[in-house]
Amino acid sequence: MRRRDFVRAIVGSATAWPLTLRAQQSKPKPIRRVSVLMSTVPDDSLGQASSAAFAQGLQQLGWEIGGNIRIDYRWGAGDTERFRKYAAEIVGLSPDLILGTSASIVRDLQEASRTIPIVFVTTIDPVGSGLVASLAHSGGNATGFAAYEFSQGAKLLELLKQIAPNVTRVAVLRDPFVPARSGGFAAIQTVAPGFGVELIPVGVHDGGEIERGVTEFAHGPNGGLIVVGPTSSMQRYRDLVVDLAARYRLPAVYAGLAYASTSALMSYDADWIEQYRRAASYVDRILKGERPADLPVQAPTKYRLVINLKSAKELGLTVPPTLLATADVVIE
Questions:
Q1: pTM, two decimal places
Q2: What sections of 227-319 are H helices per DSSP?
Q3: Is 32-146+271-301 a CATH 3.40.50.2300 domain?
Q4: What distance in Å separates the CA atoms of residue 204 and residue 227, rounded to the nearest whole number?
Q5: pLDDT value at position 54?
Q6: Which of 283, 308, 243, 281 is nearest to 98 (CA)?
Q7: At the topology level of CATH, where does 151-270+304-331 sit?
Q8: How many other CB atoms are there within 10 angstroms of residue 118's CB atom?
């Protein structure tokens, strides 16, 4: 090669290199796809607030919704058949990650796929439910944020006795088909003698069972009601339970902030919206290369107490100032 041709080749390659680099730099980044399977109905106010908090959390971490990340939602409406249907549908779309919002939903997702990463929120006892091997090391494709600690059951009874000290009989509504619920009921049983109350479990398999159980219980004196957890069944029959408590004038405390949008006397639970916001950090880390198995399951860090003074007045109850002072939200 003549010197002039050699120089020309070098100059040509040198001028072409920046063009190639610029082309590589301008290449659009891949769009990540996240699917979300919610346990509520689409117009549920708490569900909408939670999904908004999740999106905000992602945006704060630099993700652009509709830009470098796409989020699609399915709403299960507390129906286990829909959970299974949507779980299979979502897995068929091959998203980069799935956000699941209850233990039953996560089980259905894991049955459909053991490889797609899953981040869960508002999930009861993920170890006891078989979703993860341990809180420190999930050992599989799912990790996230637990929504309930068994000690919370004892707290519910304590709150009920504070607002209704004359209660001596308590109907505990629980889903017997959710193994994790046995731990919550056991926590209430442990402290019940100290509060001088008799516990009567009521199943929530369907609306008829709930109505029969509460109606029969209400025939006795000095009754109160505890709903021990926001399972799918309880979400589905939320309004029925609140209506029954009002009809039979039963002071009631509910584990589930979804009840705050009803006329429920008092609700106490982990802050769901905060869990969705925190979940965005796990989604961010997994999409950037970390494995769910390496991220520990996190316990609730924030609880919220909601008291409805109007409902208390209708029941003839006076809320102690000390209890009122601890409330995060007071509905007048």
A1: 0.81
A2: 232-236, 238-247, 272-287, 309-314
A3: yes
A4: 10
A5: 97
A6: 283
A7: Rossmann fold (3.40.50)
A8: 25
